[in-house]
Write a structure and sequence with these properties.
Chain B: It is a multi-pass membrane protein. The complex is a heterodimer of chains A (370) and B (621). With 370 residues, chain A is of the alpha/beta class. Chain A has 14 helices and 11 strands. The radius of gyration of chain A is 22 Å and the shape is globular. The N and C termini of chain A lie far apart (60 Å). Chain B starts with a helix and ends in a 7-residue tail after the last helix. Classes of the chains: A alpha/beta (370), B mainly alpha (621).
Chain lengths: 370, 621
């Protein structure tokens, strides 16, 4: 019996008497009792069928209403590796683990899947001790597209990426080719984007404008955009549903939009993609192993598994993102529907660290000043 | 009622005062009571102590762990975070300049100038005030209809007025886009009538209407109850003395309604003051409220500023509630109506102006109510039945598929329904006794009881995410005693969060009733030897039973609709509730989420009808 299932079993009995039912089973393996703080004394010898890998991720990866890769990945991995894969989807995502580490409470996952560059920045700005360990050797790492690697300290490895672009209804408008084109009178009130503080797409779009106009110029551009009636809504789903309802013809979303539209036999004319200035902001998603993980070796094997061509292709299709590797096996029509920008742009870790919260906060202060 | 004063004081004090009360409440010379009477005698005090301990454990201590971040920065006590927020024009507009020491006259001048800055907090206050006015304006005619007219389905309609309360904001946003959007129902109707289009979305108006959607039913509910307890004989006396119906209303009825209307208004203000998802979904970031920034700061783990901002928000809301409670204390109507005003039939008995005019007004109101309340809900139901090729059951099939073939780590519809009901019942079981006890404590006479009352109302004004975070740190992470970590499971923490959010409604519905009870009834019971607890159970609670049931309905509704604390605390899919399932089912298409929304509507409607039926025919609120 490995340590975790022992703890879970023991925790269940102890905590039942102390505090009643803890949330056992399902996505969350919360044991209510811990052996002091997370010192991470992994047994390391728990090979064989008993070995368990607990992976924290965001809920859409395992539980979106259309498709999500989670169940498929779990099945394939368990078949091949004779191990148990447990998905954990805390609603606070990475913050959940930062909170636990800060409070000195044991982290019950081995690795996290779905790290953004700005998550990593947040982790490092809020924790003196590391949350993630340096990953070391992982099979297939060399196949990752250049430019997607975002962690200078070698903890996070990208497994997929999205490109943020405009999606527009071609029956109602033709999106401009450039950022400046968005300021034209004919596009007044045409664009919906998202709150950069709480939405990945909104944040990417804001960062794209910082990339384009520089930290000294992006606020002026936004002032002009605001004069041209840009709408900033709360979340991607707020924005996308308002856009689908015909409130405005353009929305900031992903350049894989047609993959979904095609699946639902939608009119492609209504799902057109535009890369402003021929650029798309890349939002690579990475994975990393927690320091003190119980099964770090299994975690690395899992990472190598995810980077294999056939798995990369399947994740791309099911997660509706682009693979992180050059070698992914993608279905023939994927490339037709999912569009890659002529020039991907993104900010690296070093550029975001120390800057990103200031950029967002300055933007908030300008945009919402009453 | 000296002993009641002691009971209240014991509640606020420590264990010592409990024994003191016991001694005080024992009339000299009387000895040797049975165990049962001892329990009954000490019952109220015991409950009070337990309630206060529970409140400290599941609300004040956890929330304090968050708020302390605002004054304890890097291990040092400081007021700097507050000072910088108070002096920041971004938050406080022109007022901030006052706080940073500029002369009063200059600030007043700039406030009067047209290009003044309200600041985020000023704007939040402004929109909350507008939302309150709209909610009262939309709620009062409904109260008039429900209290003064008889028609088939009146009771069902009254039970269902609580429904908007539980609808997750995403559902309301879906319904509002479909109703008030560019291509929405409203514009279709206006177009068919040959009138021009209106574009309401992304405006302050849309946000205010959505807030009225949530809160007008609350105003209607509390006002209906007050109207139903107006004593008919008082009106008849006024009329027999020659007062016109209008005059009788102004002098007799209206004064009895005003406290309830103000209570509905105060609660509406508090809720809309801490609003956030509706603003971002229907208005846009340019209309951002304080809560938007509290959320953002917490998400970025900037706890000092987040906590300070949340405390300022709490201070403003509590100040308003306190002002209302002071007012309420001065305007309680003693001895409530024994014989309610007779309801009139909705079909006019004659075609006189006096009969037709109010009904014509109600007909006009019905059109507005259809647009604001019915159309968004109908649009949501319709959206759940729509697919690319018209009407379809595909979204409901998704729910069935997810239930039968979904993986264990995915949210399953039935489990969400079951969890919602379980948490609802469990938090009701906690909130109802807590609320009744607090109501008893705050209707006794002692100095500063309005402060106690306001403090007891604090959970209404603390945002769910702060409560959730506090419970996470304070209870779920637990604390170490002798090397063992004591912690509370996520499920219990969720019940705690829901109970804490719900009990103030029990207090606010039960307390005015308790206050209005004829004191002589209770005094006679006590004189005849009934212990305090027995007088409460046998005399007082039956008299205010409709209010207790009403409080129960609110507590249950709060639990069903709660989202932000639940999502922070839920530690796995087996703790997800219906609102969380809805959020998880949102994808490129809203179909599955709207189908789950309809499930929520059906389950909660049934629950409210059931709860209200338990209240008998004279359900208060």
């Amino acid at each position: 019996m490995d340590r975790r299932s022992f703890l879970t079993a023991a925790g269940a009995t102890v905590s039942a008497s102390v505090a009643g039912c803890a949330g056992l089973g399902g996505g969350g393996e919360e044991s209510s009792t811990d052996e002091s703080t997370g010192t991470g004394t992994s047994t390391g010898d728990a090979g064989g069928a008993d070995e368990t890998l607990v992976v924290g991720t965001y809920s859409a990866f395992v539980d979106s209403p259309s498709t999500s890769p989670g169940a498929w990945v779990k099945q394939r991995f368990e078949e091949e590796f004779d191990a148990r894969l447990i998905w954990q989807t805390p609603s606070n995502e990475v913050n959940h683990y930062i909170e636990r580490r800060n409070a000195g409470v044991d982290i019950e996952a081995d690795m996290y899947l779905g790290l953004n560059t700005d998550h990593l920045v947040r982790v490092d700005e809020n924790l003196d001790d590391g949350l993630f360990a340096e990953v070391g050797d992982v099979a297939g790492q060399d196949d990752i597209k250049p430019g997607l690697q975002f962690d200078p300290d070698g903890r996070a490895i990208p497994y997929d990426t999205g490109y943020i672009s405009l999606v527009f209804d071609g029956t109602a408008t033709t999106a401009p080719e450039t950022f400046d084109g968005l300021l034209a009178d004919e596009h007044a009130g045409d664009l919906i984007t998202q709150n950069p503080a709480s939405s990945a797409t909104g944040r990417a779009f804001l960062l794209h404008t910082v990339k384009q106009f520089g930290p000294d110029g992006y606020l002026d551009y936004w002032s002009d955009l605001q004069d041209n009636d840009v709408r900033v809504l709360g979340s991607w789903s707020d924005a996308y549903s308002a856009w689908s309802g015909g409130e405005a013809p353009m929305v900031v979303s992903y350049s894989t939009d047609q993959v979904f539209a095609d699946r639902n036999d939608a009119n492609m004319e209504k799902h057109q993609i535009r890369f402003l200035n021929d650029q798309g902001y890349a939002n690579p998603e990475g994975m990393a192993v927690f320091e003190g993980a119980d099964t770090p070796d299994l975690a690395r094997e899992f990472m190598g598994f995810l980077l294999r061509p056939e798995i990369q292709g399947e994740i791309a299709v099911r997660n509706v993102q682009f693979p992180a590797t050059e070698s992914a096996d993608l279905p023939a029509d994927y490339a037709e529907l999912a569009q890659e920008p002529p020039e991907p742009v993104t900010f690296g870790y070093d550029e975001l660290r120390g800057s990103v919260s200031g950029w967002i906060s300055d933007w908030e202060r300008q945009f919402a000043s009453n | 009622m000296a002993r009641d004063v002691d009971g209240g004081a014991a509640g606020a004090g420590s264990d010592d005062s409990e024994t003191a009360t016991e001694t005080a409440s024992r009339p000299s010379g009387e000895q040797g009571r049975s165990v049962r009477t001892t329990i009954e005698r000490r019952g109220v005090v015991g409950l009070a102590v337990a309630t206060i301990a529970l409140l400290l454990g599941i609300f004040y201590y956890p929330v304090a762990t968050v708020f302390v971040d605002s004054v304890l920065v890097d291990g040092r006590w400081t007021a700097q975070v507050f000072v910088s927020i108070l002096q920041d024009p971004f938050y406080f507009g022109e007022l901030a300049r006052l706080l940073s020491g500029e002369p009063v006259r200059a600030v007043i001048e700039s406030i009067r100038s047209p290009d003044r800055r309200l600041g985020v907090i000023g704007f939040t206050t402004y929109q909350a005030a507008l939302s309150t006015v709209a909610s009262v304006a939309l709620g009062l005619p409904a109260a008039y209809l429900l209290a003064r007219f008889e028609f088939p389905g009146r009771r069902t309609l009254r039970s269902l007025t609580i429904l908007p309360f539980v609808l997750p904001s995403i559902m309301v946003a879906v319904g509002f886009v479909a109703t008030f959007g560019q291509n929405g129902t409203l514009n279709a109707v206006l177009g068919a009538l040959g009138l021009g289009e209106v574009n309401l979305l992304f405006t302050l108006e849309a946000v205010v209407i959505a807030h009225a959607f949530y809160n007008a039913p609350l105003v209607a509910r509390v006002t209906t109850a007050a109207w139903e307890s107006v004593d008919a004989s008082a009106v008849e006396t006024a009329r027999s003395l020659g007062a016109s119906p209008l005059r009788a209303f102004r002098d007799v009825v209206a004064p009895q309604l005003v406290p309830s209307v103000l209570m509905g208004a105060a609660l509406t203000f508090v809720f809309t003051f801490s609003t956030f998802p509706i603003v971002l979904a229907l208005g846009g970031f340019q209309l951002a409220t304080v809560e938007v920034f509290v959320y953002r700061l917490i998400r970025d783990l900037e706890y000092a500023e987040a906590a300070a901002l949340a405390l300022i928000e709490l201070g403003i809301s509590l100040g308003l509630l306190y002002a209302y409670l002071r007012y309420e204390a001065r305007h309680t109507v003693q001895s409530r109506g024994i014989r309610p005003l007779p309801r009139r039939p909705l079909t006019p008995p004659s075609f006189s102006i006096r009969e037709l005019l109010p009904r014509a007004g109600l007909a006009a109101y019905a059109v507005v109510a259809l647009a604001v309340f019915v159309a968004p809900i109908a649009s949501m139901v319709l959206a759940s039945l729509s697919g690319p090729e018209g009407l379809t059951l595909a979204n409901y099939r998704f729910l069935v598929d997810r239930q039968t073939t979904g993986a264990s780590f995915q949210v399953q519809p039935w489990d969400a329904v079951r969890n919602s009901l379980l948490f609802g019942v469990a938090s009701l079981a906690v909130a109802l006794p807590m609320g009744v006890v607090v109501a008893v404590l705050t209707t006794r006479d002692y100095r500063g009881r309005k402060v106690v009352d306001a403090v007891a109302m604090a959970p209404l004004a603390v945002s769910g995410i702060v409560v959730g975070l506090g419970l996470l740190r304070g209870l779920v992470f637990g604390f170490e005693i002798g090397g063992t970590r004591l912690a509370v499971g996520g499920g219990l923490a969720i019940v705690a969060a829901h109970a804490v959010a719900g009990y103030p409604f029990v207090v606010r519905t039960v307390a005015p009733g308790l206050e209005g009870i004829d004191r002589t009834l209770v005094e006679s019971a006590r004189a005849l030897g009934a212990p305090r607890a027995r007088a409460l159970l046998d005399i007082e609670l039956p008299l205010v039973w409709p209010a207790v049931v009403a409080g129960a309905a609110f507590a249950f509704a709060i639990s069903i609709g709660e989202f932000s604390a639940t999502i922070v605390l839920a530690s796995g899919t087996n703790q997800f509730t219906m609102p969380i399932a809805i959020e998880r089912f949102i994808g490129r298409r809203l179909g599955p989420a709207t189908a789950m929304g309809v499930v929520l509507l059906v389950v909660t409607s049934a629950s409210f009808l059931l709860i209200d039926r338990l209240g008998g025919d004279d359900v208060g609120f």
